[in-house]
Design a protein that fits this description.
Elements (H helix, E strand, L loop, with lengths): L15 H32 L2 H5 L18 H10 L14 H17 L11
Helix pairs in contact: 1-4
The structure holds heme C.
């Protein structure tokens, strides 16, 4: 006499809780992102050593102001990689392209709404 196989109904795995949790975290990051971008740009600019000569807000020091540069990005990139006048070429190993694009965004944004320089002191 045939025996019925044990009745194994698939149990739904409840991943919903975990998924919505991740969504909330991502949403929060998006809201905070704008100001973070500005701070990040300034930080990267500092870390890359640019601030030493161009000033912490890129408004000029021993080297000229860079905020609101009218160079298009490819030109900016070339200047940094090849050097210009007194400025030595900055190698990819020291300042990778992705850092330069963050810096560039920050320079352009700083000039349009001054978020990066408002209320900040230029003394470290
Ligand atoms: C050792 C000092 C020094 C450091 C460090 C330095 N610069 Fe410069 N930079 C200069 C000087 C000086 C000039 C002006 C050169 C000239 O025109 O003769 C200049 C010019 C530039 C220019 C061209 C400005 C223009 O439009 O004519 C850009 C862009 C620039 N620097 C970006 C950077 C970035 C980005 C960094 C960091 C990765 C950096 N610099 C680090 C000294 C420095």
């Amino acid at each position: 006499m045939p025996r019925h196989p044990p009745n194994r109904r698939a149990r739904p795995v409840t991943t919903f809780g975990a998924v919505s949790c991740v969504a909330v975290i991502l949403l929060g990051a998006g809201v905070a992102g704008r100001q973070d971008d500005a701070n990040r740009g300034r930080q990267v600019f500092d870390d890359a050593g640019c601030a030493t000569c161009h000033g912490p807000s890129a408004k000029g020091g021993t080297a000229p102001e860079l905020v609101g540069t009218d160079r298009p990005y490819p030109d900016f990139l070339r200047v940094v990689r090849e050097g210009i006048g007194e400025m030595e070429a900055q190698a990819d190993g020291d300042v990778p392209d992705e850092q330069l694009s963050i810096i560039y965004e920050w320079l352009v944004q700083s000039s349009s709404n001054r978020i990066a320089s408002d209320g900040a002191t230029d003394t470290p």
